[in-house]
Amino acid sequence: MSDKKEIVPIESLLPQKLNIIPLSGRPIFPGIFTPLLINAPEDIRSIEDAYAGDGFIGLTLLKNNIENPQAKDLYKVGCAAKIVRKINLPDGGLNVFIATQKRFKIRKTVNDTNPIVVAVQYLDDEEEKSHEVEALTRALISEMKQLSENNPLFSEEMRLNMINIDHPGKIADFIASILNIQKEDQQKILETLNVKKRMEEVFVHIKKEQELLQVQRKIQEDLNMRVEKNQRDYFLREELKSIKEELGLTSDPKTNEEENFAKRIEEFQFTGEVKEVVDSEFEKFKMLDPYSSEYIVTRNYLETILSLPWKNSEPEEYDIAKAQKILNKDHYGLEDVKTRIIEYLSVRKLKKDTKGSIILLLGPPGVGKTSVGMSIARAMSKPFFRFSVGGMRDEAEIKGHRRTYIGAMPGKILQGLKIVKTNSPVFMIDEVDKMGQSYQGDPSSALLEVLDPEQNINFRDHYLDLPFDLSNIVFILTANTLDSIPRPLLDRAEVIKLSGYIDAEKVQIAKKHLIPKSLEKHGLKKNQAVYSQEMLLYIANSYAREAGVRNFEKKLDKIHRKVATEIVNGKRKEDEKLTVTKADIEKMLGKVIFRDDDIKKADVPGTSIGLAWTSMGGDTLLIETASMAGKGGFKLTGQAGNVMKESAGIALSWTRMFAVKHKIKNADWFDKNIIHLHLPEGATPKDGPSAGITMATALLSLFSGKTIKPKLAMTGELSLTGQVLAIGGLKEKTIAARRNGIKDVIIPQANTRDLDEIPDHIKKGISFHPVRHVEEVLEIAFKGALTKKRKR
Question: Which residue out of 518, 542, 690, 701 is catalytically annotated?
Answer without folding.
Answer: 690
